[in-house]
Specification:
This protein has about 220 residues and is mostly helical. It is built from 6 helices and no strands. The chain has a domain of about 60 residues. This is VPS37 C-terminal domain-containing protein.
Length: about 220
């Protein structure tokens, strides 16, 4: 008599309920539900027909086991989901890295452009300072301080001119023949013009001193 075959390792049956002996006659008994063995669901096709000795050698070699575990078509569903998430994260990282590289290139270009503009601005600033210095030097004689100094010198010079004319006239009376009427008239005219010029210059200086010259103060 042959012994009864044992159930396959990939399935198991529920044990009988504790009240199995107390069921009334004719009661319907639910068929046991087989629980699939998860070990058979992810075993690669290439290993299903291998003998136990080869399987033992494969299991003892981590490199081969890792290669078979991650081989195409033999990945466990949990690993496949992890790989998909990792692949999506890697693609996102690649996209972000590309965007960062593009931004870095644009930043380098903008920095080079800005540096060139800054150097050009510094050159223009130096040129403007040189032109401003030349302009100030050219306009220095027409500045208020220079004009006031020149006016003071003109007042003194014109006063000296009038004084010299007076002294020359007085010294000439005691020398030689007396001056003719025409010479006297000509001297009086020139003296009056010189005196008028001295008066006008003195009057301008006084107006300036009193702050009555528009545009300078």
């Amino acid at each position: 008599m042959r012994p009864a075959a044992s159930p396959p390792p990939s399935s198991a049956a529920f044990p009988p309920p504790p009240d199995a002996g107390n069921r009334p006659p004719g009661a319907v008994v639910a068929a046991p539900v087989a629980i699939p063995d998860p070990g058979d669901q992810w075993l690669p096709q290439m290993l299903q027909d291998k003998p136990k000795q080869d399987l033992a050698e494969i299991l003892s070699n981590p490199s081969i086991l890792n290669a078979i575990t991650h081989a195409s078509g033999s990945i466990h569903p949990s690993l496949q989901a992890s790989h998909q998430a990792l692949s999506a994260a890697l693609r996102d990282n690649i996209d972000l890295a590309q965007q960062l590289a593009d931004a870095e290139a644009r930043l380098a270009h903008q920095r080079a452009t800005t540096q060139g503009q800054l150097l050009s601005t510094h050159a223009l600033e130096r040129q403007w300072r040189q032109k401003q210095s030349d302009m100030d030097h050219a306009l220095a004689p027409f500045s208020p301080a220079a004009l006031y100094q020149q006016l003071g010198q003109d007042v003194q010079e014109q006063a000296l001119v009038c004084q010299a004319m007076e002294e020359s006239f007085l010294e000439g009376e005691g020398e030689g023949a007396p001056a003719t009427e025409r010479e006297v008239t000509d001297w009086v005219r020139r003296y009056r013009e010189a005196k008028l010029q001295s008066y006008l210059r003195q009057e301008r200086k006084e107006r300036w001193d009193e702050g009555r010259v528009g545009g300078w103060r």
